[in-house]
Design goal:
alpha+beta, two-stranded antiparallel sheet, RNA-binding, 3-stranded antiparallel sheet, dsRBD_dom, about 30% helix, elongated, about 100 residues, Double Stranded RNA Binding Domain
């Protein structure tokens, strides 16, 4: 079996009738897709480019708005806003990644 192939297990409810009241169970061990921050990091490492994030927070403490900018070799490649720093960074990383590809 190939390394990246998902593992699939199907059990009928007949075999598990005393344990579960379901028709079948599917268990898949697929890898999660890479996020854009991870993709951008890998792309910059491959191209030997330095990148950094600059984050700012605005608005009330109970409902802040985060703005993140991604700089690659000192040039801004992406800027985005979101309800959390992670959401803003992910969106900015997507913009920067797509600009580099």
């Amino acid at each position: 079996m190939a390394r990246d192939s998902p593992i699939l297990l199907i059990l009928s409810s007949h075999n598990l009738k005393f344990l579960f009241n379901i028709s079948f169970i599917v268990i898949s061990m697929e890898r999660e897709p890479q996020g854009y921050r991870n993709r951008l990091n890998n792309k910059c490492q491959f191209l030997r480019l330095a990148h950094r994030y600059e984050d700012t927070k605005a608005g009330p403490e109970h409902q802040p708005t985060w703005t993140s900018a991604v700089y690659v070799n000192g040039v801004e490649y992406g800027r985005a806003t979101g309800r959390s720093r992670d959401v803003a960074r992910e969106a900015a990383a997507q913009i920067a990644f797509e600009a580099l590809v």
